[in-house]
Amino acid sequence: MTIQTNHLKMLEAESIHIFREVVAETEKPVMLYSVGKDSAVLLHLARKAFFPAPIPFPLLHVDTTWKFRAMYDFRDRIADEYGVELLVHRNEEAAARGINPFDHGPLHTDMWKTQGLKQALDKYGFDAAFAGARRDEDKSRAKERVISVRSPGHRWDPRRQRPELWNLYNARHAAGETIRAFPLSNWTERDIWQYIAAEDIPIVPLYFAAPRPVVERDGMILMVDDDRFPLREGEVPEERWVRFRTLGCYPLTGAVESRAATLDEVVAETLAATVSERQGRAIDRDSFDAMERKKQEGYF
Questions:
Q1: Per-residue pLDDT for 155 more than 60?
Q2: Which residues contact 77 (CB under 8 A, 6 or more apart)?
Q3: What is the pTM for the complete model shown?
Q4: CB 56 within 8 Å of CB 47
Q5: Interacting residues of 229 by C-beta distance below 8 A, sequence separation 6+
Q6: Distances (CA, A) of 31 to 19, 60, 118, 235, 259
Q7: Coil, helix or strand for 252?
């Protein structure tokens, strides 16, 4: 237990160091806030990094309009309770074209998330964006640096990455370039859950098991979260005990059957897991290099 506590303290110190370095070296940073567990930890660390002052940058939620309803409720409540500036950006072109996760496949992710993010960064002129990606989530994230330079147009070129020795970070960038900073790069899913438990960090209730209306479709358990969900012939939603290991657009996010209804039970279940949490995300199933291609195009 002592070793684990020290391990979390080291990760915490590293993340706080990254926050302070990037704020000191850039002109207009922002923190991407997706409302998931990693965002919850990221926000908690940001508040610690600058306490007792308020965090010196706003939160940016790139809204696809297809998040779980519980995520929107949680997002607005946390922004109010913490007194943080929350920017919400929606891609109006995607809205006008009616782009949705049921009919448009990968175009939904590209228009709402990738293009939406680039629009928001350009609109506000941010030169640095903190995000909660971790290296253990995906092999393309595993090879990206803690501080990652994006070219004008927000593209990522894995061949142009800078070396990072020990804790020496380089946030300098040329005119038109921006950086993405990942203070949770060296954390694992287990670290995230143990830190949430240790620090009593608020999270969206969807991470805890409860009876929810679901259907099984294409190898995934999908929650019918609102009346926009088009049922296929023969599909009837049924109440099952499920929870979510990861959260995104609800039609693209698979639940897992579980009875883990407390933090201790969720931590125990995570420690016993043998597959990645990203197995529940449909957008990662497009192809073996789907995430890397999306990142090169500007996805966070």
A1: yes
A2: none
A3: 0.91
A4: no
A5: 222, 251
A6: 10, 6, 14, 40, 33
A7: helix
